[in-house]
């Protein structure tokens, strides 16, 4: 008697490692056959080859992109889950057209990412990267630093991470302003924060931390004009997506001193090329898109992705984006 065909679940490029070795993967065993590729696919043809027979895609790395033309070449694909909040690696409009359900993992690592954003902010304010480099070079230097207490923090985006960042800013004695696409008096009262328009936030803030998702509306939300509105010497933190900021304009602002420093966890090209101009900028603190990559973060995200797959296969999809 022929064996029933098992659902094929594919992780197409787990590099750097996100889910490989996670005990949560064992929970998928009763639900289908899991194939995990540890290396990143080198081109679009390899992506399609790896997913040719897959019904379920666990996209563990947002650097592995799935534009519409690739999704159209995967007729068996029924479900995609990302291992995080952002779904910008997936062409959602095409997924919707093809009937592919896409889920994310909202909120589970908000406190972890916000803590990382605060660490980047503090490191930029105290110029820790520059001071470390000076000491390693044998120089006992005295660099000007910024005290954040009493200064104004502008939080761009008030989802789960932005809300936590508001609380952390207040915890170190900062005044906090916020901007969101959908402000309301109720949300302002709930968060204990003043909502202002984006231009006003940029003018009044000594530091700006970005926490919006990448959409067509938020792409280059912070461009040359917006950076020019900021106080000379102010600080910028981005743990969301690189394309929310015009990188070329940000580099110009760093080089001119319009920005006093930046803390970045996200980049236009990932991994970051060795010749990227951001590496030559003064007072930048850089981390390799790993704001949620603590043991707790890995566990939350890997468990969340597995739960999304099981929920879909059991006919009760959750955290559906499209």
Q: Can you describe what's shown?
A:
Helix 4 packs across helix 6. The chain is globular. It contains 11 helices and 12 strands. The protein is 33% helix and 15% strand. The strands form 2 sheets. Strands 8-7-6-9-10-11-12 form a 7-stranded parallel sheet, with helices on both faces. Strand 6, helix 6 and strand 7 form a beta-alpha-beta unit. It is of the alpha/beta class and 322 residues long. It has 2 domains: 119 residues, Rossmann fold (3-Layer(aba) Sandwich); 177 residues, Rossmann fold, CATH 3.40.50.720. It starts with 7 loop residues before the first strand and ends in a 9-residue tail after the last helix.
Short description:
The protein is α/β, with parallel strands linked by helices and about 325 residues long. About 35% of the residues lie in helices and about 15% in strands. The protein has two domains: about 10-105 and about 295-315, NAD(P)-binding Rossmann-like Domain (Rossmann fold, 3-Layer(aba) Sandwich), CATH 3.40.50; about 110-285, NAD(P)-binding Rossmann-like Domain (Rossmann fold, 3-Layer(aba) Sandwich).
């Amino acid at each position: 008697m022929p064996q029933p065909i098992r659902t094929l679940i594919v992780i197409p490029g787990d590099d750097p490692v996100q889910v490989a070795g996670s005990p949560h993967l064992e929970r998928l065993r009763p639900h289908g056959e899991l194939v995990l590729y540890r290396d990143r696919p080198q081109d679009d043809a390899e992506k399609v080859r790896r997913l040719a027979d897959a019904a379920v895609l666990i996209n563990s790395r947002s650097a592995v992109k799935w534009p519409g033309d690739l999704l159209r070449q995967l007729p068996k694909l029924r479900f995609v889950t990302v291992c995080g909040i952002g779904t910008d690696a997936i062409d959602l409009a095409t997924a919707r057209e093809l009937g592919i359900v896409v889920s994310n993992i909202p909120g589970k690592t908000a406190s972890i990412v916000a803590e990382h954003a605060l660490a980047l902010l503090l490191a930029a304010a105290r110029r820790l990267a520059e001071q470390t480099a000076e000491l390693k070079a044998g120089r006992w230097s005295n660099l000007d630093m910024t005290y954040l207490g009493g200064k104004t923090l502008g939080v761009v985006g008030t989802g789960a991470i932005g809300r936590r960042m508001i609380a952390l800013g207040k915890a170190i004695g900062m005044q906090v302003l916020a901007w969101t696409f959908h402000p309301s008096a109720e949300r302002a009262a709930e968060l204990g924060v003043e909502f202002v328009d984006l231009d006003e936030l940029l003018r009044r803030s000594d530091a700006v931390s970005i926490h919006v998702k990448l959409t067509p509306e938020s792409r280059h939300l912070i461009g040359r004009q917006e950076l020019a509105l900021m106080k000379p010497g102010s600080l910028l933190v981005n743990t969301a997506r690189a394309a929310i900021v015009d990188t070329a304009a940000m580099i110009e602002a760093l080089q001119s001193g319009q920005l006093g420093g930046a803390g970045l966890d996200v980049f236009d090209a990932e991994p970051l090329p060795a010749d990227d101009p951001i590496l030559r900028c003064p007072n930048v603190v850089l981390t390799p898109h790993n704001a949620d990559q603590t043991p707790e973060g890995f566990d939350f995200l890997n468990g969340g992705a597995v739960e999304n797959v099981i929920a879909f296969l059991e006919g009760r999809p959750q955290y559906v984006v499209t």
